[in-house]
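Example 3.
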Amino acid sequence: MSDQAFNFAYLDEATKRMIRRALLKGIAVPGYQVPFASREMPMPYGWGTGGVQVTAACLTPEDTLKVIDQGADDTTNAVSIRAFFARTAGVETTTRTGEASVIQTRHRIPEEPLVEGQILVYQVPIPEPLRFLEPRESETRKMHALEEYGLMHVKLYEDIARHGEISTAYAYPVRVEGRYVMDPSPIPKFDNPKLSDNPAIQLFGAGREQRIYALPPYTQVVSLDFEDHPFVASKAEHSCDLCGCGTSYLDEVITDDRGGRMFVCSDTDFCETRRAQGHRGRLAPEERT
Amino acid sequence: MSDLSGGFAHAPEQAARAFRACLETLARPGQVQRLEGAAPPAPLSPAAGAVLLTLVDQAVRLHLAPSHDRPEIRDWIAFHCGAPLVAAEEADFALGSWEALQPVGRFAIGTPAYPDRAATLIVEMETLAPPNARLTGPGIARDAEARLPEIAAFADNRARFPLGFDCFFTSGDRVSGLPRSTKVEAL
C-alpha cells in the first residue's frame, strides 16, 4: 500500500467532524467529559488512541508536532506517534517545545511555559476522576450533574488519616472554574499548577473510554485540598544530575546493583537545552574540547 | 437548477484549517479569525459556509431560520453537508440572522447529565465590529471585547451554565465565537 492511500491525518472526514464537534462542546463546558464515538486506531488501547484521534482532528498541514511520553521525546510511544503523523499528515515534527504548535503528551506538561497558539493534547487512560470511588457510569454522571463531589474529599481525607498527608502523587483531582471535578490524566501533581491559567489550549482524549474534555486558555483550575492540608506540588528533593536544574521534575534512574542511582529531568528537551547552554549537573560528562 | 459549487476544493486540509479557526475563536472569546475556502450562495456568508462544511454532516440536525431558509441554500446544504433540516427545538446546529433565530429559548441547552447535547448557533452578522460587550471567563486572560447582537440573551445563557447554547458569529470571511461559559456585560 502506498502512502497516498491515507486521508490527511489518517482519519476520514466524517470521523474528524464528529471529534471536532465533541472538542468544541468540551471547550464550551470546561472539565466536562463529552462522549464521542472513538475509532479503532492502528495501535493498542493504552498507547494513546484518544490523544491520537484528538491530534488527528486538530492538525493542519502547517503545524509542527511534538510528542512526549513521560517528558521524553525518544521513547517508543513518542517516536511511533511522531512517525505516524509525519507519514499520514506530512507535518513537520520537532522535539523543541518552543517550536511546536501541537504537542501530544503522555503524562507530563513540558517544563518550558506554553504560549498562545499552542495546543497540548493529553492521552488519558481513565477520564472519570470518580471511577475508582463509584464504578457505575450512571451514578458518576449524576454526581457530576449534581456537583456531588463529597466522596472525592473523603478519599483525600482517608489519605491523610492513613499516611498523614495526601499521598495521591499523580492524576491528582482538580476542580475546573469552580464546577467540574476533572482527572488531569496521570501527570505528576508537580504539573498541576501549570493546568491553571495556561495560555495554550489543553485537550484531553480517552480512546478506550470514549471521552473528550478540554480546558480553554486562562481557565482557573484548582487542585482539591484542605485548609490544614494544602496542596503541595512535590518533586524529588534533588537536582538534575545532568543539567543541575533544581526546579524541574525528576526521574530516578537506577545505575547499578549496589544502590547507585541518579536523578535526571523527565523533560528531555528541557534538559538538553540547559546542557547546551553550559549547565552541568553532578554526573554530567566532562565537556569535550 | 441552483449553483452547487463553492464547497472545499481540498476538503481535508481546508476543513482542518477552518476547524482550527473555530477552535481558537470558541476557546478565546472576543478573538476574530479568518475563515476562507467556501463560496456558498448568498445570503450565506463564506465564513458560515465554512463552519457548515467543517462541522455539519448527515449525523447532525440543522435548523434554517427564515432569513436563510431559501431553496438555493437548502440545495447547497443538501449537496455539501447532507444534514436533515429540522425545527428549532430538535436542532444540533442552527443558522440564521439573530432576529430570525428568535426566540432563542427554543434551542436545546443540554441536560444536567449531558450538557453537551446543546445547540450550536451560527449567527450571521452585518459586522463583527465595533465591540459593544465586555467578556470575561474561560479563554480570556483578563477581559475581552466583542460585537454581539444583544447583551441580555447571552447573560441569561451564562446564568444557566453548564447548560446553554454556544454561538459562532459570522460576517463575510470572519468568525468569532461565544461559548456558554463567557460572562457578558454591556460596554
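DSSP finds seven helices and twelve strands in chain A. The CA atoms of residues 104 and 238 of chain A lie 28 Å apart.
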